[in-house]
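Archive transcription. Copying these from loose printouts into the bound notebook so they stop getting lost. Printout 1 of 2:
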Amino acid sequence: MKIRVVFGAIACGLVLALVGSARADQSDESHSRRVFKIGVLATLTGSGSSLGIDTVAALQIAEEQLQADASSQHGGYRFHFFVRDTQHDPSKALEAIKDLDRRGAQIIIGPQTSSEVAMIKPYADAHNILVISQGSTASSLAIPGDNIFRLCPDDVLEAEAIVALMLHDGISNIVPLWRNDAGNNGLHDSVKAQFEALGGTVASGFRYETTTTDFSAATSSIASQITTLVGGGTDASTIAVYLAAFDEVVDVFHAAQLVGAPLSTTTWYGSDGVALSAALTGDATAAAFAESVDYPNPIFGLPDSLHSEWQPISDEIEARTGIKPDAFALSTYDALFVIQRALEDVGDLKDFAAFKAAFVSEADAYVGITGSMALNSAGDRANGDFDFWAVRNDTWVRIGTYSNGQITIFP
């Protein structure tokens, strides 16, 4: 209910802003403004809704600022957002992009997950639609020349960060537990490859389906694998569970608590899909288990050097949604400014190739509130530091960072 009320407020705000823009255009013909349609594919209900809700708010705030700039300059561009709730569902994402295409939207912000991006990619490539995802990390989607651009580092860079933390902590054996979707499969594969390349051992672990609600089989399996490692002479302090998941982490931890040792006595490490999850801190039992097993989660971080730039926007988003935004959500604020600049370069979307090239050029040159927006050859964010977040006293606390290959742990 809370999520629906919050989203309703955001949606109403967007509608009011758009109505205001239309009236301004009609009342002052001297203002040469063009309105461009932008589709927003976000998860607004259910698992992952925190990022979706904050994404809508970030775009709304960016539009308001651009609108104010346009009014003062008697020109500029306006954006009409078409928001669709995809609920992390690839089929819903595909249905939504087809609908948005019929409505004339050639720019899409979102969707959040790699599974959704993988589903809509063929359609976007075939219909000259620019897709700008704020949350997809699967390295399998790092394809040069396509119409998919991603505002966050891919899973190879995230794996580098979490593996570095594991090695820093003396972990040499991991038992993975992961969700069977494109993004989390990518994280598992990248962590496994990098961990083994550095001399570590990765057990077979357990991969669960996206529809799983009973995690007793999953937790029993990884508990058995840990027991086997210890029985074979492996020091228990060098074993960890690596969990790549979304908000179902709550059910995973409920099941793990019922198992008890060795799951409750083994260190756990997580992924960006859970970092800052309101679902986890909102469940006392799961939050307590998370704290007891340490459970640091890496996530694309915000530059401390730009704190004065991103903090006011972060505060405004939280004031509107009640949810503290992360770098993924804030990157969409930056994205709208890059889109604006690209449109200024080419004038319109009639020549899609020209707009696409302008978007890349402007992204490479732009430094926003989340730092450099420069893209690599596959159209993904080229660089990025990571923060490590863990649950402490039912609250997410930043416990360290990974930057330029160096781990820093806060006291």
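Printout 2 of 2:
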Amino acid sequence: MTHGHQHGHKFDIANLDKLRDPERLRYLNPEAVWSVIGAGPPRVLVDIGVGLGFFAIPFARHMREGIVFGCDISAEMLNRLQEVLEAEGVSNVTPIHSEEVRIPLGDQLADVVFMSNLHHELDHPEASLDECRRLLRPGGLLVVIDWKPEETPMGPPLEVRIAPERVREQLEAAGFQAVTRHDPLPYHYFITAEKPGGC
């Protein structure tokens, strides 16, 4: 049951150019996000809904000894991502064609699982969060960034946005702990949660 949110609002691939808009760096800054999640740094990061690598590429540059698995349900998006990776000389991002609730990667391989501007698109958020938990090593970090449920200069319609309080409930129901909100982004909430160490 999705509490009135039956079907996610999907990104239209016709809007690909928006994903490369330099203006995004102003309000959705990968470096601000990395400053919160990059301790270690992680050796394996799974970016679900990778798009054109807006986060995956700068993260991969920080993770010189590590790897980013960039997952997307769109083969066309992944083809474009591969072109961007080659053009920018990034070799430690691996594009992965996935389904929404099934990521074809092994159990407990990730230090960080990352989702940006995706939660409001999920048709089955509970199943997707269970899959994130499967991918994470014990003590690993799940990151959820999505649009605040308020008027912003851009972004999806207000009626499809998911309140951060609802995301917290879903994370806790999926067995995550230490659910924490961070506020470096003007139009997005930014939540981290840990997979318990003993599971």
